[in-house]
# Entry
Amino acid sequence: MAISSAAAAAAGETAAALSHGRVRGTRPLPTRLAFLPKSPSRWATISLPPVPRRAAPATAEGRVAEEEGPAWMELEPISSEQQLDRALAEAQQLDHPIVLLWMANWCRKCIYLKPKLEKLAAEYYPRIRFYCVDVNAVPQKLVNRAGVTQKMPSIQLWSDSQKQAEVIGGHKSWLVIDDVRRMIEREE
# Structure
């Protein structure tokens, strides 16, 4: 009889443990996921330099090779008509064309396209300078002067203080970059 009462008691405990969602000897399931705070020693913060960032590939010997040029260039912002005039005058003096990205900070396609144009700017640096103009942050007079349409993003190539070509970036960003590359190659 003692064996049967002990077996009944063990069976009762197992049934009680199963009814609470856990089996004896295992850890209970968490009610919610808890994220542990990251210790500063394990995770480093990253701060990027403003411009230009250079890529230096390692050679077979493990040394860093000579730097060729920047991997990306931050597009220089233009926020007034005077800044645009200054950029155009400097480009005319150096006899270099400039590329203007007309964008809006709320435009999703503009946001996706900007980093790709920064990489393209690094390829053409210093022959061609790239600038960025937020149409919501500049006077409407400047937007009208440049002949920017309603479509965003709009990439323009300027040479001798005049607009030479324009690409409207309403499709995939890699297609827009190819169009901009062709536009630049035609001008050079």
About this structure: The mean pLDDT is 75.
